[in-house]
């Protein structure tokens, strides 16, 4: 059962990375190293793997900044649990 939870968490994180990559590509931005962080991926529960945004050229960083500034700001709750990529809601918090 715990192994199923680990697998679903990993799959949700992989889906989030794919969705982010697709959204960035639509904005004309490519982060070549975008993926799951290998260290936290192998660490396992209770922590979900971190998304590694990787490195990029300064021009790509400027494109990303411009794309983010073009949309209205959304308040972020840094104390919330991980977002469930399939449900679009906060997961892991009672």
Topology at a glance:
Elements: H1 2-26, E1 35-36, H2 38-43, E2 51-52, H3 58-69, E3 83-84, E4 89-90
Antiparallel strand pairs: 1-2, 3-4
Account of the protein in words:
The chain is mainly alpha-helical and 94 residues long. It contains 3 helices and 4 strands; from the N terminus they run H-E-H-E-H-E-E. The strands form 2 sheets. A two-stranded antiparallel sheet has the order 1-2. Strand 3 and strand 4 form a beta hairpin. The relative contact order is 0.16. The C terminus is likely disordered.
Q: What features would you highlight for this structure?
A:
94 residues; mainly alpha; two-stranded antiparallel ribbon; 3 helices; 46% helix
Shape: globular
Helix content: 40-55%
Low-confidence stretches: 84-94
Query: Over all CA atoms, what is the radius of gyration?
Result: 15 Å
Please state how the strands of the largest beta sheet are arranged side by side: 1-2
Could you give the distance between the termini?
19 Å
* Topology as a string of helices (H) and strands (E): HEHEHEE
Strand content: 5-15%
Largest pleated sheet: 2 strands, antiparallel
Give the mean pLDDT.
82
How many DSSP E strands?
4
Which structural class should the secondary elements be placed in? mainly alpha
- Give me the number of helical elements: 3
């Amino acid at each position: 059962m715990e192994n199923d939870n680990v697998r679903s968490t990993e799959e949700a994180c992989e889906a989030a990375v794919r969705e982010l990559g697709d959204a960035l590509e639509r904005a004309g931005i490519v982060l070549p190293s975008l993926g799951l962080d290998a260290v936290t991926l192998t660490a396992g529960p209770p922590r979900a793997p971190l998304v590694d945004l990787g490195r990029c050229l300064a021009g790509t960083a400027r494109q990303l900044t411009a794309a983010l500034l073009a949309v209205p700001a959304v308040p972020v709750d840094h104390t919330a649990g991980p977002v469930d990529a399939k449900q679009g809601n906060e997961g892991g918090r009672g």
